[in-house]
Amino acid sequence: MGLLTLVRHGQASFFDADYDQLSQAGHAQARALGEHWVRHGVAFDTIYVGPRRRHRQTLDGVVAAYAAHGLSLPTAIEAPELDEHDGLTVVRHVLEQRGTIGGERAPHDPGGAERERMIRSFFRHYLQIMGEWARGTVVVADVEPWEEFRARSLRALERTCTGPGNAVAFTSGGLVSSAAGWVLGIDDDRVIDLSAVVKNTSLTEIRHSDRRRSLVTFNALPHLPDPKAVTAV
What we know:
It contains eight helices and six strands, in the order E-H-E-H-E-H-H-H-H-E-H-H-E-E.
């Protein structure tokens, strides 16, 4: 038997010019995850990391926590299959076409109130548009189609659920949800529903053997006991 832990990246820079960059909170979440694993004596035989900067930065925070205690982790294997879908591009494209939003950027907002308003406004439309994209009624040029993303996520699952031992993969919420969807045998609508609740640096564990895969935990946050440290984008 083997165990795969899928880790969603820490909070990224939503509505900033470059989303693919951990925020200050995201770096703190990654470090907290590493400290939690160190305290509990968690070791990994294999580490995979997706291609995005936010995936690597989350891994780096974990590695730094281990290093602070004189511990090391295996060298990470880069796995492009662990990349996120481009749903954010799809949703923005549709909202702009419908005149719902423009090219918004979060203003300087120390209290975060305006940022939160913009995020809530964006995600009010997210599930509906993602469903339309999954059903093929929305097509955006030069964006990997939903069905190709689902197939890629299955390849990622097959690559990372191999052999005995303890493996971890740093990726994104859509990939986590799609992988869980394959294990549970649920449809696209339910996969999209799952993707809307996956928290930053949450843990999803899959026990696997040659004959079966079983979901052990989903969206767990044992390293973030303070609700104020929990984020979803």
